[in-house]
């Protein structure tokens, strides 16, 4: 049997009819819109390795998370395990790169963004892949609630600029570490008498990180949670975390960014404190998020920094945005189509077609045929490539140093001298 792509991965293809889920042009469009809006907000691009020391992920993402406990891809080379893993997310790598390269000198706060593939060995289902792509934004060096609100607003601006209408922001706070410790004590008190009934995963969570029980996928666990009438994390916020949360909401309201409060938000990574949120969309199922983020003021020190580097950021999953776009039927620009397509009627003129094409590329998209073509065939090819203008080159054109350009939409014909081709394309492409 022919070799197929690994389970839980996707090919993103050019020019494929049908659903945008696998269209490379839609994938590129999402990246492009995100890049533009993030760079307008002063975020600088950063790229980090696809594999990292396993310890970075263990310490960064956290030993109690499903990601570290069940979903790590370990890298082997020459039969050896070098202690590396494929990165499951972008935040710990970006913070590592910031610390390792002394990026504080670039100014504080520093806004960074990145994109690329992430890897988690998950149970594969709709929107849940083993290799997926994230766009990731991180703002390092500020504890100001303005940084939180700006991060959330940027995410909102990107999804709305893409044309998505059905997105909701679920906003919460998981407080400071001492607030969470109090909440975990409360949860332990509540769940310990029911220990025997909990799922195996949740039994384990009870000692490591009881909050994670609330996020359990087991129906029995969820029934127990409902029965116990568990108080939400928000009820346990200390004064500082409460003020911070109030200020974030105030900024978002002032900017007209809509959100709903999720009083018991649980994120799948351990580094969060205070603000945490997720973006949801009906088209991808209630259990999955389009994106999520939060504040992680303790992460730098967890990774070995001497002083605290506060941070706030988010990531969204490109494949999940594609599903949401497919669900809403949101249009997106197709891949490149040339303004000009040239073909030679005779083999002798192929070099001339090539030279004119290369000249035209200084101002517009242009392509040409490697083989001689009859006029009918040439225009058909041009049409298939989605070209705006097409022309053939034979002895007449070469002698007169002039092309007769045909507009493939209207059929209009225009005579354009070779040395005016670029000016013409600039104005009419
Ligand atoms: P996360 O919530 O784990 O956060 O992932 C962010 C987004 O990545 C998810 O909302 C989802 O769209 C996408 N995603 C995650 N896992 C999968 C998967 N298996 N298949 C498809 N898409 C997936 C983080 O990764 C944090 N680093 C976000 C962050 C940045 N927090 C602060 N800064």
TrEMBL record:
It catalyses: tRNA(His) + L-histidine + ATP = L-histidyl-tRNA(His) + AMP + diphosphate + H(+). It is found in: Cytoplasm. This is Histidine--tRNA ligase. Keywords: Aminoacyl-tRNA synthetase, ATP-binding, Cytoplasm, Ligase, Nucleotide-binding, Protein biosynthesis. Residues 30-333 form the Aminoacyl-transfer RNA synthetases class-II family profile domain. The gene is hisS. Its EC number is 6.1.1.21. GO terms for molecular function: ligase activity. Belongs to the class-II aminoacyl-tRNA synthetase family. Pfam families: HGTP_anticodon (PF03129), tRNA-synt_His (PF13393). PROSITE patterns: AA_TRNA_LIGASE_II. Its main location: cytoplasm. Homodimer.
């Amino acid at each position: 049997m022919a070799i197929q792509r690994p389970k839980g991965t996707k090919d993103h293809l050019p020019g494929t009819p049908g659903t945008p889920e696998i269209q490379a042009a839609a994938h590129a469009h999402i990246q492009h819109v995100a890049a533009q809006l993030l760079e307008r907000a002063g975020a600088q691009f950063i790229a980090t390795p696809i594999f990292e020391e396993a310890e970075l992920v263990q310490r960064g993402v956290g030993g109690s998370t499903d990601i570290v406990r069940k979903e790590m891809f370990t890298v082997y080379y020459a039969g050896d395990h070098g202690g590396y893993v494929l990165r499951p997310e972008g935040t710990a790598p970006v913070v590592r790169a910031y610390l390792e390269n002394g990026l504080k000198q670039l100014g504080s706060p520093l806004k960074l963004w990145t994109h690329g593939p992430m890897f988690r060995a998950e149970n594969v289902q709709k929107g849940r892949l083993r290799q997926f792509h994230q766009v990731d934004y991180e703002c390092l060096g500020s504890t100001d609630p303005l940084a939180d609100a700006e991060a959330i607003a940027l995410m909102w601006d990107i999804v709305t600029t893409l044309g998505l209408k059905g997105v909701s922001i679920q906003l919460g706070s998981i407080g400071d570490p001492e607030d969470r410790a109090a909440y975990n004590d409360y949860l332990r008190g509540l769940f310990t008498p029911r220990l025997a009934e909990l799922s195996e995963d949740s039994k384990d969570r009870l000692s490591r990180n009881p909050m994670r029980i609330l996020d359990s996928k087991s129906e029995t666990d969820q029934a127990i949670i409902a029965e116990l009438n568990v108080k939400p994390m928000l009820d346990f916020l200390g004064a500082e975390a409460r003020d911070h949360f109030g200020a974030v909401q105030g900024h978002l309201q002032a900017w007209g960014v809509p959100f709903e409060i999720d009083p018991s938000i649980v994120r799948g990574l351990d580094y969060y404190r205070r603000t945490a949120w997720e973006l949801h969309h009906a088209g991808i199922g209630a259990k999955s998020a389009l994106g999520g983020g939060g504040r992680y003021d303790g992460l730098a020190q967890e990774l070995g920094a001497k002083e605290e580097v506060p941070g706030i950021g988010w990531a969204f999953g490109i494949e999940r945005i594609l599903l949401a776009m497919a669900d809403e039927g949101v249009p997106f620009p197709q891949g490149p189509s040339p303004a000009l397509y040239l073909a030679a009627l005779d083999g002798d003129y192929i070099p001339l077609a090539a030279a004119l094409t290369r000249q035209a590329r200084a101002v517009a998209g242009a392509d040409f045929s490697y083989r001689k073509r009859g006029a009918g065939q040439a225009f058909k090819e041009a049409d298939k490539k989605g070209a705006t203008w097409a022309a053939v080159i034979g002895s007449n054109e070469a002698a007169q140093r002039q092309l007769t350009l045909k507009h493939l939409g209207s059929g209009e014909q225009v005579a354009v001298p070779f040395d005016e081709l670029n000016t013409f394309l600039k104005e009419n492409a």
